[in-house]
Amino acid sequence: MPTSTPERDIDLESPIGGIPLVHQTLPRWAPHATLATAVLAGLALVGAGIGIGLAAVLVVLLYGVAIYSWSRPIEGARKAKDRVVTTAVMATFLLALLPLVSVIVTVISRGAARFDIEFFTHSMQGVVGAGGGAYHAIIGTLIITGLAALISVPIGMLTAIYLVEYGRGKLARAITFFVDVMTGIPSIVAGLFAFALFALFFGPGVRLGIMGAIALSVLMIPVVVRSTEEMLKLVPNELREAAYALAVPKWRMIIKVVLPTALAGIATGVTLAIARIIGETAPLLITLGITTGTNFNPFDGRMATLPVFSYYEYVNPGIPPEPSLERAWTAALVLIIIVMVLNLAARLISRLFAPKTRS
Amino acid sequence: MAKRIEVKDLDIYYDKFLAVQGVSMTIEPRSVTALIGPSGCGKSTFLRSLNRMHELVPHARVEGTVVMDDQDLYGPNVDPVGVRRQIGMVFQRPNPFPTMSIYDNVAAGLRLNNARISKSDLDALVERSLRAANLWSEVKDRLNKPGSGLSGGQQQRLCIARAIAVQPDVLLMDEPCSALDPISTQAIEDLINELKTEYTIVIVTHNMQQAARVSDTTGFFNLQGVGQPGQLVEIDDTTKIFSTPSNQATEDYISGRFG
Ligand SMILES: Nc1ncnc2c1ncn2[C@@H]1O[C@H](COP(=O)(O)OP(=O)(O)O)[C@@H](O)[C@H]1O
Ligand SMILES: [Mg+2]
Q1: Has residue B129 been placed in a domain?
Q2: B69: exposed, middle or buried (C-beta count within 10 Å: 0-12, 13-18, 19+)?
Q3: Mean pLDDT of the A287-306 span
Q4: Dihedral sign of CA atoms A76, A81, A82, A83 in order
Q5: % of chain A at pLDDT higher than 90
Q6: How many domains is chain B partitioned into structurally?
Q7: Mutate to test the interface with A, among B97, B114, B144, B145 (most CBs of A within 10 A)
Q8: Alpha-carbon distance A161 to A230, whole Å?
Q9: Residue B154: inside a domain
Q10: For residue range A9-48, what is the model confidence (pLDDT) as tens digits?
């Protein structure tokens, strides 16, 4: 637009008549250069005999001080503080990441040795020393976890539906309270519960796959209730009203409108709940024990599972111990991979089922 | 089809709070009745009590009678779901079902009620409803696309199509244009004019010009004071309400002196 006002001399950098809009900034490469210098200094310190941990702390401090004193006179106080806080956030993030990366690296490096075909195709039946595999434990983990999900998902979802759509007053509050309590139950207690329950019927010392599934359900149900509840609460009330106004009965409204709308979130929650319980060891130790052979029947006798397998291979190694220890690490690696796949599946599911707005 | 509704001495409560008091009015078939009044005077509450949506709020209840063609809607043994089958509703914010396509949204009233209907009949019904809602030409090439991908005005017309697809006798609209732009508002007002040949329409609106444009009868709700129940101050022919209202408060409101 052609201006009708006479041209004015606007000095963007002068604070007169307002806050200046243009600031001087450090060059793009400033943080990288500072960091590189700090790291070099750190490496020199390590060379001089200082521990790596201490050196890392010094590098972070050095970087913070350096970037602040460089930025302060040029960019001003606010930008300088911003850079320091960014440094602090990044440093704590890396600190939090450290144990995770360390676990993954350790498990991969030690578990890789037996990550072979035999490990996935053979059980430990008749194996002494080297060789053998965790086929029986993988099957066991899949069966037990599947059963636990089969028990927990309907119970948990129906409970959540009750709490969100129907629950009022004392009963709902009591259920919410008990779900909260269940969330905090130590997993060993869940195992003891299943053990005691079955001991009532079959006498002490009984070990069945279904016992493990029930113990895991005790842990899984509250997680499913909570996540489903949150997802149902996110469904806008307007959709329920729209369904009511179309003369849809309540139960059908829930099945056809509320659940489909919340499906993505619920499925994600269930998948994450499975990932959460698949690595449980203590309750399975009590309820399933361990075997060397493959057992497909959760209603008859002991079953092996990956966490328990890993545990026993580690605490009761043969002589020499190396083959057992290697199997233990590989079992742990397989478990981690399963959990990762489940987490990826959860993301995929939420993307697949999410209500679409376009295309 | 279109039915007459007679409301008598209706008191509407939220638990112990009396929100609307002593409403009596007759809603004529094949006409548009507009309800106007300041915010919070109970227009939505009254509207929702006509198709028994009010009682969905916990502890909400009504006293009095709402008679539709000799049948008291609040009589014993009356099924609220049956009432809603005959009295449809369109809401302030367009609320198409996000998991459903445009087609499925229109068919929702039948599908969700498991009505037995052949595919070709359903196709015809969906087309007829969309045509009636003046939306057919805009969406006929993308019936299987999600309903939430439409513009606000289109979504609202989709909701109207969805409401009339179940062939109700009465259509309630709670500020159906307040979330829409002027062009979409125009489209919906035209639509209301067409629909009134077949339906009994009750529309709540904040916009007095809109009430004057679309309605045959206008009712004015007001509050006596803060915390007091809302009351129906006056109901009459729209032309009369907007030219020579018999109540001072009505005149003040429509001349913009308050509210
Ligand atoms: N769900 C509810 N629970 C309790 N009070 C409500 C509820 N909805 C509305 N009210 C109250 O009822 C009165 C009328 O509200 P409403 O019918 O929404 O007015 P309007 O639609 O005319 O703006 C207001 O005082 C409001 O606070
Ligand atoms: Mg309202």
Answers
A1: no
A2: exposed
A3: 91
A4: positive
A5: 71
A6: 1
A7: B97
A8: 10
A9: no
A10: 555 555 555 666 777 888 889 999 999 999 999 999 999 8
Angle at the Cα of B231 from the Cα atoms of B27 and B89, rounded to 5 degrees: 45
Between positions 161 and 180 of A, the ones with CB within 8 A of B are 168
* Residue found under tokens 């009233």: B109
Q: d(Cα B85, Cα B163) in Å, to the nearest integer?
A: 10
CATH 3.20.20.70 fits A119-353, yes or no: no
B20, β-bridge pairs = B12, B230
Residue A261: list chain B partners with CB under 8 A.
Answer: 97-99
Average pLDDT estimate for A243-265: 93
Q: Is the CB of B157 under 6 A from ligand 1?
A: no
DSSP reduced 3-state for A88: helix
Displacement of CA B236 from its chain's centroid (Å): 19
| Chain B residues touching residue A243 (CB < 8 angstroms) | 97, 108, 112
Atom nearest to B47 CA in ligand 1 = 17
* ipTM associated with this complex: 0.90
- Judging by DSSP bridges, how do beta strands B71-72 and B60-68 pair with one another? antiparallel
Give A1's pLDDT tier (boundaries 50, 70, 90). Answer: very low
Q: How far does CA A327 lie from the centroid of its chain?
A: 24
Is B99–A261 a contact, with Cβ atoms under 8 angstroms apart? yes
In this model, does residue A3 exceed pLDDT 50? no
Contact present, B37 and B222 (Cβ < 8 Å): yes
User: What's the pLDDT at A15?
Assistant: 54
A80 touches B at CB < 8 Å: no
What single-letter amino acid sits at B195? L
The number of C-beta contacts closer than 8 angstroms across A and B is 83
Residue B121: count of CB within 10 angstroms of its CB: 12
Q: Which B residues in the span 155-214 are in contact with A, Cβ-Cβ below 8 Å?
A: 159, 162-163, 166
For residue A201 the two structure tokens come to 């019927």
Pairing of strands B5-14, B17-27: antiparallel
Nearest to A245 among B53, B145, B149 (CB): B53
pTM of the model: 0.84
Helices B152-165 and B102-111, interaxial angle, to 10°? 30
In a domain, B75, yes or no: yes
Domains of chain A by residue range: 30-113, 119-353
Residue B15 near ligand 1, beta carbon < 6 Å = no
pLDDT in tens, B108-124: 999 888 788 899 999 99
Q: Residue B238 sits in which domain range?
A: 5-97+171-254
CATH number of the domain to which B24 belongs:
3.40.50.300
In a domain, B88, yes or no: yes
